[in-house]
Amino acid sequence: MSSTGDKNRTSEVNVGEHFDVEVPDTAHQISSDSWFQVAFVLTTGINNAYVLGYSGTVMVPLGWVGGVVGLVLATAISLYANALVAKLHEFGGKRHIRYRDLAGFIYGRKAYCLTWGLQYVNLFMINCGFIILAGSALKAVYVLFRDDHAMKLPHFIAIAGLVCAVFAIGVPHLSALGMWLVVSTILSLIFIIVAIVLAFKDGVKTHSRDYEIQGSPLSKLFTITAAAANLTFVFNTGMLPEIQATVRQPVEKNMMKALYFQFTIGVLPMLAVTFIGYWAYGSSTSTYLLNSVTGPLWVKALANISAFLQSVICLHIFASPTYEYMDTKFGVTGSTLAVKNLTFRIMARGGYLAVSTLLSALLPFLGDFMSFTGAVSTIPLTFILANHMYYKAKNNKLNPMQKLWHWLNVVFFSLMAVAAAIAALRLISVDSKNFHVFADL
Question: Which of 164, 157, 162, 160 is nearest to 438 (CA)?
């Protein structure tokens, strides 16, 4: 594989007796980043503004026992699943820099296309979620100082989309984030520390809390199912091969270092804010923790502005596979500041984010749709496909118990995906009756 400046060449990869898959080279940089920089990319993917919602969306439906046990298990299972994919990065003697390339190499053309479709729908919905999060954080700042309601959530979503587009145009590829990852870490620490401190102060003042899981037995069944499925989304990007493509040799060893960092030190801030937020407010915890905390206006404003800016950076990470496809497809080469390349990024990335922003403003309760998308794409990509790919690739080296283990994982997560999809469809049905398009939530 080549790095920046290569043309959109293709190479044929034989994946079996009947399939040849054309795999394009990339217009973006590969093999240029240290394991530590990749670790920060992964950690940024965990400690984004979504963490401000886990107290309400994970802990409230599951309670203390289910939430704590679920998060600990999800950490271990996610590390295991990501390690399986990481160990296949150079399977067959070549480097697979995209998830679809790896699936195509192992299964063939149909799997290549299916994986591509699932991954890009998943990443598109995640990016819409970041735009909604960024818009919600901006609105939270606005209502701290104004109560006229002249500006509504769709207005702030539009502003967030514009800022995301400007950032996407200025940062050409994932490796170019560089110091922005440090900025992202600082921003994450600001809103996480503010949320922890203010929630802790509120918790100390409150002497009684209700931790009971709310709702009827049927309602509890659906909300617990949805929350259990959400545990699988907390730690996973759905684009591990694309991130691993940026790491230097030795690829597998360096990626495992990055994953160990992500799932040890990297998860601590997320777990801290999740548990303290739930401890402080119990079952009344908001799905956006900064709406529950009390404290100085300027501190809450600082936290919300940090959440807004960090969401812009984090969106760029999850949008990078889409940008890479467009840049490679249309042969973007040469200086990133060349007029031709700038114009292309304005048109291509600006258009992509304009569509994302419009959908986000149109359906700001997109979280329900994201849960459904996650059920039919994130779980299959991260857990079902990872286990089956490893089983198929290493079949001759696995003993019967190891083969059984991978099949049990495939069956279990397939059942979870079906259950999560049903729960998400129910939530969509309920919320579509309560909200309208361009709603001011």
Answer: 157
- Mean pLDDT value of segment 25-40: 77
- Amino acid code (one letter) for 68: V
b/e sequence 200-223, b meaning 16+ C-beta within 10 Å: eebbeeeeeeeeeeeeeeeeeebb
Mean pLDDT, residues 322-327 taken together: 87
328: pLDDT strictly greater than 90 = no
Is beta strand 10-14 parallel, antiparallel or unpaired with respect to 20-24? Answer: antiparallel
* Tokens read off for 279: 């401890």
List Cβ<8 Å contacts ≥24 apart for 291-300: 291/140, 292/199, 292/202, 293/194, 293/195, 293/198, 293/199, 293/202, 294/198, 294/201, 294/202, 295/194, 295/197, 295/198, 295/201, 297/144, 297/145, 299/194, 299/198, 300/140, 300/144, 300/194, 300/198
The CA distance from 420 to 371, in Å, is 8
Structure confidence by residue, pLDDT tens digits, 178-207: 888 889 999 999 999 999 999 999 999 987
Q: What is the per-residue DSSP string for 298-343?
A: HHHHHHHHHHHHHHHHHHHHHHHHHHHHHHHHTT--S-TTSHHHHH
The whole-angstrom separation of Cα 13 and Cα 32 is 24
Give the separation between CA 318 and CA 203, rounded to whole angstroms.
35
Q: Does the pLDDT value for residue 60 go beyond 70? A: yes
Query: In sequence order, what are the residues at sequence separation of 6 or more whose Cβ sits closer than 8 angstroms to the Cβ of residue 53?
Result: 287, 288, 289
DSSP per residue over 237-301, as a string?
Answer: -S-HHHHHTTBPSSHHHHHHHHHHHHTTTTTHHHHHHHHHHHHHHGGG--SSGGGT--S-HHHHH
Tokens 């820099």 identify what position?
97
pLDDT (0 to 100) of residue 5? 40
Tell me the C-alpha distance between 126 and 233, whole Å. Answer: 10
Query: Do 54 and 287 touch, CB atoms closer than 8 A?
Result: no
Assess contact for 175 and 323: CB atoms under 8 A: no
Residues 6+ apart with CB under 8 A from 311: 48, 49, 130, 131, 133, 134, 137, 160
Say what the pLDDT of residue 2 is: 40
Determine how many CB atoms are found less than 10 A away from the CB of residue 35.
20
- In whole angstroms, how far apart are CA 399 and each of 269, 395, 407, 408? 38, 8, 13, 14
Q: From CA 409, how far away is CA 384, in angstroms rounded?
A: 7
Q: Are 244 and 163 in contact (CB under 8 A)?
A: no
Question: Which pair of structure tokens corresponds to residue 352?
Answer: 């992509």
H-helix segments, 172-235: 179-205, 217-234
